[in-house]
Amino acid sequence: MLKTALCRTWLSSKTSFNTFGRRCFGHGNVSVDLQSDTGIATVTLSEPPVNSLSGEFLTSISKTMKELSADSSVSGLLITSKFHGKVFSAGLNILEMYNKSDSYLGEFWRSVQEWYIDTYNFPKPVVAAINGHAPAGGCAFALMCDYRVLLDGKTIGLNETQLGIAAPFFFTYLMSSTIGIRQAELALANGTMFSSDQALQANLVDEVVPLDLVIPNAMNQLQKMIKIPQPAFSLSKGQFRGPNVKKLLGEREEDIATFVGLLQKPYVQKVLGKYLENLKNRKK
Amino acid sequence: MLKTALCRTWLSSKTSFNTFGRRCFGHGNVSVDLQSDTGIATVTLSEPPVNSLSGEFLTSISKTMKELSADSSVSGLLITSKFHGKVFSAGLNILEMYNKSDSYLGEFWRSVQEWYIDTYNFPKPVVAAINGHAPAGGCAFALMCDYRVLLDGKTIGLNETQLGIAAPFFFTYLMSSTIGIRQAELALANGTMFSSDQALQANLVDEVVPLDLVIPNAMNQLQKMIKIPQPAFSLSKGQFRGPNVKKLLGEREEDIATFVGLLQKPYVQKVLGKYLENLKNRKK
Amino acid sequence: MLKTALCRTWLSSKTSFNTFGRRCFGHGNVSVDLQSDTGIATVTLSEPPVNSLSGEFLTSISKTMKELSADSSVSGLLITSKFHGKVFSAGLNILEMYNKSDSYLGEFWRSVQEWYIDTYNFPKPVVAAINGHAPAGGCAFALMCDYRVLLDGKTIGLNETQLGIAAPFFFTYLMSSTIGIRQAELALANGTMFSSDQALQANLVDEVVPLDLVIPNAMNQLQKMIKIPQPAFSLSKGQFRGPNVKKLLGEREEDIATFVGLLQKPYVQKVLGKYLENLKNRKK
């Protein structure tokens, strides 16, 4: 416990070595704890209060992913949340989408794309320890990983339509490749949040476990995965994911324009405004 | 009961208002009962004796779909059969394919395409209350909807190969997107008719219920779906379905030529002739 | 029993008629036993000791497939192994990939492609009686068939990454079309060998049965399949498979170059060398 506590001390873009053979670093509200013996890096999402994905936070994640991808001492990633038992990630930050200029929205969306590309295309094993709720972008984040362990009793799903918006095509593919085209179509149209049991049943997650097992079981799976000859693992993973990333890279500006166009529609702004209003009232 | 009975009085292409806040209209053997409070339109297929899909009937369906799609007071559709407890739809009318000229077949096939485009691409929620058997085109009709409630004990499947023909590529995709590519391949090659239990197991339908629950359960699901912010629902649905409809629109004439070429093969005509002969004998 | 024993006498590229209305023929270590009454051909893989797929053996299989495809008296194929109860096929022969010239590897890979094209694209029903283990290429062989009966207790899977290589894209598609994209991605990245129970659960195989039922149950399914009007069966099967075969035909040389490039990487040769060394030591 002490080790972790020490290691997770926050160091924005700086690297330190502690006395336990771990390197601790990270960007912004992303902390990384790298075990020097196994090469496993634990990436902890720590944006208060619920890991809402703002442009800045997404950029911190992307920077971290790029560094970890380039670091040959890294064997695999475990992605989890600081808000253990509560929220994995609440998804894209709605404040970033409300009452903003086209260019602001465009830059925000570019950071969303970057986060997807760097995470989904990560060349080594990535396991999600989903230790809290994972709606919308939080679900997408988990789907970008190679394996998912969900905390029993928490919910997960792409529920964007409930907010009046629609998930982008690359989220859509994450879901349809995982649970099948039609089940994805239904879940996305309805904005379904899956209970942990439903998520397991639908193969949306691989394991559902109590709180004290989320991290250990995710770590256990990761330890198996890093034993696969890694160039082969990477090549095999790339065969499935490369074409989708390439597709987004090829139509990036078009995708940004689509997103901005959708967001600026009056009814969307109205729904988002109402949502934010409700959120404010709930906090009072 | 009285309300429905009154409302379903038949009005070919004319609209009437009855005293219960319902508008009743339709084309040919398609009747529509629109609840003015919810915006839910019940579309009842009423082509005697088994809702065989002739060119004329298909065109009536397409016209109805186009009108309902353009009507902003419509929130969603429930599609069902007048032949409650017997047949949802017996599929494409074989008489339209036997001993016909190329141009007749071509026009028939154009109406099949139109029906598919208008139904599959319908921008609002569509639920199928499959209150009877649904072979071949009857199954395809149900697959074009967003949700399927099947009457317990009835069968459903794309059994075209049993008649010596093959389903068109857009039927094929309906099945493979719903139950997975390989299960669809096997089912279509074998011409499998699924029992209601098998259909539920394979995710070909979403619910299997006794006769008195087919319509209520379908309606219940529809009431949930119309609560989703509709522009978002429509956008999300369109992300999945748009590309397939676009594909057909782009190769429509080629698809017609393929169908006509297949139908005019002597062995196909022979199999269809035999089938019609058996049908006639069975009726005697 | 006697019939089969007599018939399976080995005849390299020659055809003989025995006294029981069967034609026996084949190429190399592939034997064919054709029942003249049903048109069912039993294709027995008989390359000692474990049906490793060398270039020569693959070419024998392709030649046999081409002949059977052109033979209008053939109604369908049952593919099985001579090493009943032990191995269906051990997959591609590693010796063909170790310490070889680019041109040798290129020709080997061409024979792999040919085997895939001729088997996957076979226009009539093909059932795999998987009467032993089916790793890597052995699994791919089974996946190219229309239906799979697996011997209880045996394993099956695309475990190439465990050997430091990655399955080619056409193997990848065989798996993802059968068990879904994400399950395939996970299984291929991890190099998972499925137990017979897991394989059934994942829909990787259709039946798991004891040894004495593998051939009879496979034959039973084949007898059902050959009753479907065959032009329709073939057309339906081709709708699913044709595009994939066409894709490979269109990028055949590129695929060969990819394979040769991968195989000649020092780390791949090192892993294969180690594997062969272990194999040798185990035999001692």
From TrEMBL, chains A, B, C:
Question: Does the record carry Lipid metabolism as a key word?
Answer: yes
Report any one BP term from Gene Ontology.
Answer: fatty acid beta-oxidation
Top-rank taxon: Eukaryota
Primary localisation category: mitochondrion
Signal sequence extent: none
Keyword annotations for this protein, in alphabetical order, are: Acetylation, Fatty acid metabolism, Isomerase, Lipid metabolism, Mitochondrion, Transit peptide
Molecular-function annotations in GO: delta(3)-delta(2)-enoyl-CoA isomerase activity
Q: Which PROSITE patterns match?
A: ENOYL_COA_HYDRATASE
Which pathway is this protein engaged in? Lipid metabolism; fatty acid beta-oxidation
Which Pfam family is one of those matched by this entry? ECH_1
Q: Where found in the cell?
A: Mitochondrion matrix
Keyword Acetylation tagged: yes
Task: Write out the GO cellular component annotations.
Answer: mitochondrial matrix
| InterPro entries, per the entry | ClpP/crotonase-like_dom_sf, Enoyl-CoA_hyd/isom_CS, Enoyl-CoA_hydra/iso
**Purpose of the protein:** Key enzyme of fatty acid beta-oxidation. Able to isomerize both 3-cis (3Z) and 3-trans (3E) double bonds into the 2-trans (2E) form in a range of enoyl-CoA species, with a preference for (3Z)-enoyl-CoAs over (3E)-enoyl-CoAs. The catalytic efficiency of this enzyme is not affected by the fatty acyl chain length.
Q: How does it assemble?
A: Homotrimer.
Q: Which PANTHER family match?
A: ENOYL-COA DELTA ISOMERASE 1, MITOCHONDRIAL (PTHR11941:SF45), ENOYL-COA HYDRATASE-RELATED (PTHR11941)
Name-wise, this protein is Enoyl-CoA delta isomerase 1, mitochondrial
Organism of origin is Phallusia mammillata
